[in-house]
Amino acid sequence: MSIWVIIPISLPVFTITGIWVVYAMALYNQHVCPVDNWLYNQSCEEKLSLQRGPVLCCTLDNVPLISKCGTLPPESCFFSLICSTGSFLVMLIGLLRYAHVIEKHQNCVLNTAGLSTCWICAAGLIMVGNFQVDYAKVLHYVGAGVAFPTSILFVCLQSALTYRLAKTQREYNVGHLRLGMSLLAFITLVLSGVFFIQESFALQHASAIFEWLFCIIIMLFFGTFAFEFGDMSGDTLVVLARGGGVQGFSSSDHKAEEAGGPNHHYQPDGIAML
């Protein structure tokens, strides 16, 4: 198994653990209310962070949305770090997946679109993490409006690409897994968005829960690339170095080039056909 498999596994491990640590910090500092709290008030006599006692007075400002958990320091610092690092890993996984498809198969519209949506999603994630919702609401919502739809589009494209390239039963099983995760992610995102705009306290709290589920599913989806990255080699980097223009490049092709010697020249497809 290739050492490259560590990269897709590290993303869900790091991000999922990280956002739960941020939630625990926000809960400890009484910046948000617990996930199991379903009772909210229109207003409270004291801010949540100043309250003492077993029973807390919560308002909609204390709903444990992921962004709310990372709004105030010190948890906001860790939230920005997690989102920035996660964004880098998302871009790296998307790029390696793009090159690996070219290496093992050939480039296609689905592959190129997958890379594009992946990088756009990463850009939105950076904005979400570094523009806190209480202090830069417009930029934060712009980032969320970019990251959430493109992440759904990315998982759908990758699911379709997996089926298109599948040749063995194992690869079809991976496609089934990704399709199921894509459907779950789409459902949770829709429910989170619909409940978020409602006035009901219970529905807004449910929106936060579905948002957590959505993000966890998306991160786990990236972890499924460990199946392909286990077969990755240095030839993938060669594809990137050549600008992704070599289709179906493999180690056997590389050996053939070496066997051809210095007088062996690569012929374009059009000349080869002639």
Please name the defining characteristics of this protein.
mainly alpha; CWH43_N; CWH43-like N-terminal domain-containing protein; membrane; 68% helix; transmembrane helix; elongated; 274 residues; disordered C terminus; DRAM/TMEM150_Autophagy_Mod
Give a verbal description of the structure.
- The chain contains eleven helices and no strands.
- With 274 residues, the protein is an all-alpha fold.
- The longest helix is centred in the first third of the chain and has 30 residues, at 75-104.
- It is found in: Endomembrane system.
- It is a multi-pass membrane protein.
- Belongs to the DRAM/TMEM150 family.
- Its main location: membrane.
Number of helices, counting only DSSP H or I runs of 4 residues or more: 11
Number of strands: 0
Low-confidence runs of at least 5 consecutive residues: 246-274
User: Which structural class should the secondary elements be placed in?
Assistant: mainly alpha
Shape: elongated
Largest sheet: none
- What's the pLDDT, averaged over the residues? 88
* Strand content bin: under 5%
**Rounded radius of gyration (Å):** 23 Å
**Share in helix:** 55-70%
Distance from first to last alpha carbon: 41 Å
Task: List the helices and strands in order.
Answer: HHHHHHHHHHH
